[in-house]
Design goal:
By secondary structure, the protein is of the alpha/beta class. The protein has helices at 16-27, 45-52, 88-92, 110-121, 141-146, 175-180, 202-206, 214-235, 247-258, 266-274, 302-312, 349-354, 356-365, and strands at 2-7, 32-35, 57-64, 70-77, 83-87, 126-130, 150-152, 171-173, 185-190, 262-265, 285-293, 317-324, 338-341. β11, α11 (302-312) and β12 form a beta-alpha-beta unit.
């Protein structure tokens, strides 16, 4: 049997590349396998580009994580020397955060701005920012501040970093930011289609996974609404209702509104860049993976792109996930043909998270 392996990361456990290696190691004993680790802009974004451009250079730097602690991190400078790839999950990621660290009102995207400036200094004229899997929800305000934007209250005092201080935002001066990155084109590669505000806002849908209580979700929504209004006065760009501006704690909104970035839906963009649809005719079975198969999967994540193409090409899909939210599949036109849930093989969810590779091998042996 010909198996096309298109794994997404198990956030906090295995990268897409590691998942591909584990599954292919078992499946190749009995089947022909082609493996392409995926990313939708979140975890694994840099790995995806490194697969396409093996001679890309890794640039290391120290940047602040979501909780404003300096950490060693990196971005890619592709072999053309003019294109940089930044993965937000590597800098202010949620997967590496401890539960007691979570601070949805105070967490910041400042480190992303530090990486952007370093990439521009390294000669990047085009920067792809992979969006997803972050622990902050400040709309990219910290990122903008790191690049020189002045965020001021009514008394012209600079705001503190984080989402909650944005409730006091009165004006944004983008002139210093624009000067620092004036020769750079930005592409915001988003992992979801949700807009910044509305019923499926960044705060309402993704705030709880960053530790936000129901009351904090309301605060985040108000902060993002003020951020959107003030930035629109400064740049003329509507961050509030543009699709995908909710991505990565709404860092996508900040890139769109402050950096004039073009928004791209990550899964579609990366599938086209790697010409992955051409592989579907070869395959008898498609296998994709994700840490949790839930409603968010169908908001534009990489596995959704797999499911859509599989339906188009009339190919069966085995979806291997760590956990399953069954109600997410109700009335879902792109539901997978088969689902393997790793927690069904493990005694409990925590054991499954700690030993994901072991349970992946068990699932693969059943194929």
């Amino acid at each position: 049997m010909n198996i096309l392996l298109l794994p997404n990361a198990f956030k906090g456990s295995l990268s897409a590349r590691e998942t591909a290696r584990v599954l292919a190691g078992i499946l190749r004993k009995n089947h022909a396998v082609r493996a392409y680790p995926l990313s939708d802009g979140g975890d694994g974004f840099m790995d995806f580009f490194r697969t396409l451009d093996p001679t890309a250079k890794t640039i290391f730097l120290t940047a602040k994580n979501a909780f404003l602690k300096p950490r060693r991190t990196s971005f890619l400078l592709l072999s053309d020397g003019k294109t940089a790839v930044i993965e937000t999950a590597r800098i202010c990621g949620l997967g590496s955060a401890k539960k007691e660290e979570l601070d949805p009102l105070g967490a910041s995207s400042y480190g992303i701005g530090q990486a952007i400036l370093r990439a521009a200094q390294a000669g990047a004229q085009t920067i792809y920012v992979g969006l997803g899997g972050v622990a902050c929800n400040d709309g990219g305000a910290g990122m903008a501040a790191a690049c020189g934007a002045r965020l001021l209250d009514k008394k012209n005092r600079p705001l503190a970093l984080g989402a909650e201080p944005l409730l006091q935002l009165a004006q944004v001066d983008l002139t210093p930011l624009r000067q620092k990155v004036k020769s750079v084109r930005f592409y915001a590669v988003a992992d979801v289609t949700n807009p910044l505000l509305g019923p499926k806002s960044s705060a309402k849908v993704f705030g709880p996974q960053k530790g936000a209580t129901p009351e904090q979700v309301k605060i985040l929504d108000r902060a993002m609404a003020r951020w959107a209004r003030v930035v629109r006065r400064a740049s003329g760009r509507d961050m509030a209702h543009t699709p995908s501006t909710a991505a990565a704690g709404a860092i996508a909104a900040g890139l769109y509104g402050c950096f004039d970035a073009q928004l791209l839906l990550g899964a579609d963009f990366l599938f086209q860049k790697a010409h992955l649809e051409e592989q579907f005719d070869w395959a008898d079975l498609i296998i994709t993976t994700e840490g949790k198969l839930d409603r968010q999967t169908f908001y534009g994540k990489a596995p959704l792109a797999v499911l859509k193409l599989a339906k188009k090409h009339k190919k069966p899909v085995l979806f291997i996930c760590g956990q399953l939210e069954e109600k997410a599949l109700l009335k879902q036109p792109f539901a997978p043909s088969q689902i393997a849930v790793l927690t069904d093989f493990a005694p409990d969810a925590q054991t499954c998270i700690q030993h994901t590779a072991f349970y992946l091998r068990r699932a693969a042996k059943a194929v």
